[in-house]
User: What shape does this take?
Amino acid sequence: MIVGVIGAGTMGAGIAQVAAQNGHSVVLVDLNQTVIDNAKSGHAKVLARLVEKGNLSEEQAKVVLSNLYYSTDLNDFRECGLVIEAIVEDLGVKHSVFSKLEAVVNEKCILASNTSSLSIASIGSVLQKPERVVGIHFFNPAPLMPLVEIIPAVQTSLQTIESCKDLISKWKKTGVLCKDTPGFIVNRVARPFYGEALRIYEEGIADFATIDWAMTSLGGFKMGPFTLMDFIGNDVNYAVTESVFSAFYFDPRFKPSLTQKRHREAGFLGRKSGRGYYSYSEGSVMPAANEDAELGKYIFDRILAMLINEAVDAVFMNVANASDVDLAMTKGVNYPKGLLAWADEIGLENVLLTLEDLFVEYGEDRYRPNPLLRRMVRENKTFF
Ligand code: NAI
Assistant: This one.
């Protein structure tokens, strides 16, 4: 099968590489010739590095490169069995591109979007054959991150879903099936990692370094929330939070933080701007954490309970099953453990207790324990 990818930026170039390494002829299209040239030289460099490291033979790398065809013309998608869209995150532009794609491809071709935040149902609404639309959401960098969220819209046919599941597993990726809901699994369940950390800071309970220390040293997360937000960029991370918040009709669980907004407004975007919550300029020293065991435990328990509550909600609302929620967080964002397995380990009653304490203390809807968590504690059940 020939695979098409439209948009040759960060994600599109990576997805094209994945398909080409898995033996497909790939047509990579972008409006912008410079982006195409960069994608082409980027692929050559990446494959040379893989040969250097001994991951591929020179012969194999040659085959992969010869699988890749670059173009600025949508008509080159004619023979594709699947086209994955990875263009700018703008619904209007996606609508226009999907209409144009459908006019070019054959009637069996699956049309997928790599969108992080838009509704697949809406993207598919412009198609004559909307049963062929699906979300195939990769994580950055696509060649390295094992997770792919597969998102059927209400219009998607079973056949489309099955073909995508087969393909993603042939590409040796971990596919998880998830409902067409804001943030899908990962970008929904992960919100409290940032939001609750910011809230703890805003209340003056601890500073950035201390919260990061608690989550890395007690929680085993690879990066603390503030280090991670600085890595992602406060503009990007804030935009995702705001979009999830409004898409959930302003549920206070997802409320964005003024601290993050101010950092974004000030241009403190993180690593890429030289300053975020921390300074990254030459010679700057990272602030020391207050390594108080009791404080650390409070921070870790609170953020983890909020993350678990969100993971439970994804199961409660049938966004995905418990195994897929755990796979998504371990394979998509490298969490040290699946949140639901972690909840079993801590004891669901203890997670519920932490949430109830917060709910009583603050009286805010944000902290309401999920009904499924309450039910499972009552019935003495575990997730696995
Ligand atoms: P990017 O800005 O790096 O690349 C987008 C490319 O699309 C640009 O090269 C642009 O020239 C091209 N483009 C725009 N309109 C076009 C059109 N009408 N026809 C052909 N090409 C067009 O963006 P990035 O980061 O690769 O994101 C692409 C999509 O993937 C977005 O929907 C984003 O939400 C999603 N995504 C991004 C992730 C990330 O970490 N960057 C992770 C997962 C999904």
Residues 230 and 265 are 14 Å apart (CA to CA). The longest helix spans residues 293-316. Residues 188-378 form a domain with the N-(1-d-carboxylethyl)-l-norvaline Dehydrogenase; domain 2 fold (CATH 1.10.1040.50). Strands lie at 3-6, 26-29, 68-71, 82-85, 110-113, 133-138, 147-152, 174-177.
